Amino acid sequence: MNLENWQTQLRKGLLDIVVLNLLNRGPSHGYEMVQTMKRIEGLQIREGNIYPVLARLEADGLVASYSQPSTDGPPRKYFKLTEAGQKALEDMNKHWDRIIESIQQVRKGV
Amino acid sequence: MSAINLEDKDWLRLREQYLKQIEDVLAESSQPNVERIIEDVRSHLDRRFTELAPRQRTWENYQAIITEMGPPSEYAELAGEKRDIPAKKVSARFVVILAVVLSLLTGLLVLLPVLLPKSPMPTWTDKMKSAFISEPELIGKWVSVDYVRKINEFNPDKKQWQGDLFLKDMEFNSDGTTTLGWFWTKGWVIDSASEVRAEYEIKNINGTEYLFLPWFSGDVTIRHQKPQYYVLKKVSETAPQQQAKDAQAITAAVEAAKSWLQLVDDGAYGQSWAQAAEYFRNNVSEDKWERAIEPVRKPLGKTLSREVKNSTYTTEVPGAPDGKYVIIQFETSFENKRSAVETVTPMLEPDGQWRVSGYYIK
Predict the structure, then answer these.
(1) Strand order, beta sheet including B140-148
(2) What angle do CA A79, A85, A91 make, to 5 degrees?
């Protein structure tokens, strides 16, 4: 089995929940989120990966974007959770917690 | 963080190649958010580029940035929501034919700029000879206040560009030259180096004149995209080159004024009339002048000192025909009036001499 490939696929599969959780801390822009994820073990992604995810989440109505002036460059595009995004995130986090528990159960042979 | 150097052609080429690949991949898989994704990735790339110090701006580092972004194929994969397109069986023969047609088309696209005749772009010399049209409104010094994608995006109360403006100011000279090396003629700015021209626009917004100057970045000169605009505000009606000419004019006019005033000081009123400008003599007869000046000037006594207080070059004087004038104010001390202000207005006459067209003592 190609472990690296599996890890990459897992990371990509988890991008939605990671991005939504990051935005649950407060509005952020793509660049900032990428930098945050780069600092978290196991969540390092390709820098470009976040933009198709954000575009899809926005199209789904889970996040909304707005432009905000920046002190060090052109205006930045910020993203924030919508109400629907907040609700979806709660469900996703619950589901994730259940999966973790389930995997632990399987690992322990319960 | 420094402003993006849009003239870095290597970076621009690499950036656009990468964006084009993403665009193709997304379009191929019928993604609905192509434009949004491309715009976000472009913005991300530009930010990464600006983080590079000038010495780090190398091809290797540009490649590293692109590599870190990830392969274009991943964008389609992560964008999801593919539009369902029924899969069609394609024969190997068709694939070969398609590949040949595509390669021919690609070759043709590469050759097109060579095969097609270039639209004739007259040189600036040609333009100067045949088509230079001045626009007094543009002449002078302008300072940058903003940078916008489209003219109608500009709002004087809300700056669009938050970083440093690369172009701080620009001066448009009356001969069609500028401090930036570009040229201009009414309605157009021209970058002769890259043979590109674009329309500028001057708009009055809330009582202030703004110049929307198309910026010849690499996107315009290389990729032939529509330009974005610097927004500038006028701070001076004259440009340095013009100012130098004005300074020469002022010096000559002051000298002429001093010589003329000496005649008045000496009581040679008739001579002062004779040496005044034609405009002056046409409006006041010699006799009338003598009768007007003597009762005013004689009681003041001898002139003790006279210093230039200020002088202004202008082409317009209220109540006088358009021409070249210098309005000079002297701070003068007379024997019987220690503090007075004399206003003398020499004008440039057709023979190239400055002569007094007006005089006033306060």
Answers:
(1) B169-172, B140-148, B228-236, B208-215, B201-205
(2) 140
Stretch B218-242: mean pLDDT: 77
Hey, which of A52-66, B204-218, B317-331 has the most confident mean pLDDT?
A: A52-66
What was the pLDDT predicted at B222?
66
Smallest CA-to-CA distance from B357 within B308, B324, B331, B330 is with B324
The whole-model pTM stands at 0.41
pLDDT tens digits, residue range B42-78? 989 988 888 888 888 887 788 788 888 888 888 887 8
Rounded CA-CA distance B175/B128 in Å is: 9
| Distance (Å, whole) CA B78 – CA A49 | 7
Instruction: Look at B43 and A74 and tell me if their CB atoms are within 8 Å.
Output: yes
For position B130, what pLDDT does the model report? 43
Does A11 reach chain B within 8 Å, measured CB to CB?
A: no
Tell me which of B1, B43, B46, B48 to substitute to probe the interface with A (most A C-beta atoms closer than 10 Å): B43
Determine, for residues B43 and A56 on separate chains, whether the beta-carbon distance falls below 8 Å: no
